[in-house]
Amino acid sequence: MNTETIKKVADFLHSAEKEKREVVRLTKEVYPDFSIEDAYLAQEEIVRQKLAEGHKIAGPKMGLTSGAKMKQMHVEDPIYGYVFDYMQVEDGETIHVSDYIHPKVEPEIGFVLKEDLTGPNVTAEEVLAKTDYVFPGIEIIDSRYENFDFKLPDVIADNTSAAGAVFGTTIRSVEGMHLDTLGVSLVINGKVATMGTGADVLEHPANSVARLANMLAKKGKSVKAGEPILTGGITAAVRIQSGDHVCAKFGEGLGEVNLLVK
Ligand code: 0L1
Ligand code: MG
């Protein structure tokens, strides 16, 4: 794809996000040969456009980190995108469905590093050694594609459906923690909607951070100390609607994160 077409794709998806308008996936008719490399170039163009508009990157996020989702999409690699400052929601805050297209929520474990991590060959052990703390979070995903119907390049170009994130305020050192066996329930209106464990994220959420560092290394980038990193949904994402009270409950002393939906 030439630079002009990459920009066209980025403009198309970025305006769909701003106008809260769903669109047909690019690979369906217009660009059936859209590649993963081109998709990351389109994502980078969207990031450039957002930065030029004055938004700031809050931190990177990993997507498609569950074995089941990867199998379903026939991929071996998870994907990454970025959460921006304007997407951040406080714990307990009220969000409005009308600010999104068809939002879903998923509970995630977040990491903050005390040192930069530069791939390739970063391991989970190195991630844990360089972790300052972990925190509980909820990601709000809102694919710009109709019915969340996309192929891998579509979702990469669409900044991995990023739309919102709650970075919970409970923080814990990883010392003595078992992030793989840590249980999480997503409770909606007092009923458990879905459950999972940290191991549902690439067998251990630290593997997700390692994969992020190794993927960014191909672009000459690092994972930076101090930035909140979302490691990927622990459970399936659940559609939310007006009137919902969303509560993600985490084990290992990570507490809970809440959202109200209007
Ligand atoms: O954070 C995620 O895992 C979302 C990646 C994109 C998949 C989706 O929108 O369902
Ligand atoms: Mg996610």
From TrEMBL:
Domain Fumarylacetoacetase-like C-terminal residues, every copy: 88-258
This protein's name: 4-oxalocrotonate decarboxylase
Top-level taxon in the UniProt lineage: Bacteria
The keyword Endoplasmic reticulum is assigned to this record: no
Any Pfam family hit: FAA_hydrolase
Gene Ontology terms: cellular component: cytoplasm
Protein keywords: Lyase
SUPFAM superfamilies from the UniProt entry: FAH
Signal peptide: none
InterPro entries on file: Fumarylacetoacetase-like_C, Fumarylacetoacetase_C_sf, Hydratase-Decarb/MhpD_sf
GO molecular-function term, one example from the UniProt record: 2-oxopent-4-enoate hydratase activity
Keyword Hydrolase applies: no
